[in-house]
Amino acid sequence: MSTIAADARLATRTLSRARSSVRLRRYLRNAGTLVLSAVIVVWTLAPLYNMVLISLEPEGDVFTDHIWPRVPSVESFWGVLTQSHWYLEHFWHQFANSLFIGWMVTFFALLFGSLTAFAIGRMRIRHGWLVSNAALLTYVIPASFLAIPFYRIMQNYGLANNPWSVIAALVAFATPYAIFVFQEYGRSIPIEVDESARIDGASPPQIYLRIYLPLMAPALVAVGTYALLLAWNEYLYQFLLLSSKANMTVPVALAQFLSSDQSPWNYMMATAIIYAAPPVAIYYAFRRRMTSGLTMGGVKG
Amino acid sequence: MNGTSVIDVGRRPAIRRRTLSRSLRGGLKGGEYTWAVAFVVPYIAVFLTFVAYPVVYGLWMGSEASLYRELFADPIYQSTVVNTILYLALGVNVKMFLALLLSGFFMRPGWWMKALLLIFVLPWAVPQISTFISIHWMLNGEWGFLNNVLYALFHIEGPSWLNDRWSALGAVIVSHIWKWTPFWTLILLAGRMAIPLEISDSAKVDGATGMRGFVHITFPLLANLYLICTLLSTIFLLGDFNAVNFVSGGGPANSTHVLATLGIRNAFEIAQPRLGVAAVMSALPLVIPLVIILMRKLRTSEVQI
Question: Which of A95, B131, B148, B193 is deepest in the core (most CB within 10 A)?
């Protein structure tokens, strides 16, 4: 009788001890998550906060030692938008240049990429693997390593300081990725769709336009976003190939601020933020599509 | 016997011709074959003009042996090689290891994790130039944000981070890690998500939880992806120009260049394009095996990045 009671008491005691250890572990785990989350937030946001901080300084007050904006002023943003500083006299023109290059790169990468993937993956052209290998090779060669010969070639052709030379370079580097994603995504569309259209008498361009492209819409959006961001964010080729202020793009103009020690740093940071806004907005708007594009076809081990 | 052999001799060219034309056309009818070729031609033209031609031109520019003698004797080049090796070893491995750990962290359920992930990917979403310029000013010795924070919190007078070779190189490496960890975390997170739930669940039932589950179940399944990501990130980092150019600018006194920035500096700042090409080409013994391994891996395992 008493042994049973003692056993029961022992059991409840161990049970409650186990419960409290589980609770303690969960508590520690939550605390760990919280600390790690805080570290991640601070680590991630510090350089971005610094950008905002400097851009909010009123002019002449940049070399201060405080860590929050004491007299926040949006004067610098206004200055960029109205091109009121001589560093920024072509800002909107340069913004348009960036946009133009971005759209052209997106258009040609999508066009050439989808045509090539269609011919290789859907029409099964012989020796198509040679083309895919060429694309793969381009993907794994660092673009910056080709910058010097590319610059020389463009000079020989008289294409230096011409936006089309930048577009050509960026299309060459963006299309391989487009070809992979399209080929990989195309595998999820049954080939019988094309074949039945073929039997019904559709010509290859008709199949490409009416059947292939509409079915590929999600992949087109993913790759289009990738190409647009690639062109918008690229610096080296634009810096080397575009020298005049009228042909420059925003990243090149932004780097121009660094050429002098007397530059208006708050204007520079405001420009950097305005320049960063479109890609961040696009990224968050197309986030799901982009990450699905990144890992499209799965990551089969 | 004789008769058949005569017939054989007569037939063979016909068969060969047919197989040749079939192998060329890949089973497509005449008109369709023309269309298929027309579809591939634009990309082939782009590849030949803007990739293959510059590659050949570059190889030709950097083909003189005397260039390399001049290059190897240059003390800036020697320190550049050391920097490049450090940048590769630390930049790639620390970043990939962090990405591996963080991808596990972000597997946890809850809205809080999703919100954190949204913040976490910001460095990847913001253009490189903006962020690297910001980091450059953050590290200024007199009025940089980092030293201001150190002073406000601990009353420490921080050093001029970018005026010393090793701290400047460290700043470049940390900036690279800051910028690219989110991207690789997302890739590895997708890899972890692709592991079927049954596998991890049955492993848990069998007692493989926590560290043991990771070592015996998760990592073996992720290993191939991890390897490919490491190789790809090695080659991307080797070609990285922006982090060095904007964070340290190659300074102080050209002591923090890497091969990619030294190439551009030789070609455009001291106007010796051949020496610039030679600097870049001296990475070929590392680039070529990497490219070969990567092309094999990417072709066979169908990893998309």
Answer: B131
The Cα of B9 is separated from the nearest Cα of chain A by a number of Å equal to 28
Q: Is residue A63 part of a domain?
A: no
Contact B171, B247 (CB under 8 A): yes
Tokens, residue B128 = 């490189």
Provide the domain count of chain A: 2
Tell me how far apart the alpha carbons of residues B84 and B258 are, in angstroms, rounded to a whole number: 5
For residue A143, how many other CB atoms are within 10 A of its CB?
21
Residue A254: closest CA among B75, B134, B300, B84 = B134
Closest listed residue to residue A299, CA positions, set B210, B227, B122, B120: B227
Which chain B residues in 74-103 lie under 8 Å from chain A, judged by CB atoms? 102
Q: Which fold has domain B70-301?
A: MetI-like fold (1.10.3720)
Q: What is the mean pLDDT of residues B267-271?
A: 89
ipTM: 0.84
Contact between chains at B40 and A131 (C-beta distance less than 8 A): yes
Of A276, A92, A243, A87, the residue nearest B134 (C-alpha): A276
pLDDT of A27 strictly over 90: no
Whether the predicted pLDDT of B23 surpasses 90? no
The pTM for the full model equals 0.85
Q: With an 8 Å Cβ cutoff, are A120 and B129 in contact?
A: no
The domain limits of chain B are: 1-61, 70-301
Average pLDDT, chain A: 85
Contact A168 B222 (CB under 8 A): no
Is residue A235 domain-shared with residue A96, that is, in the same domain? yes
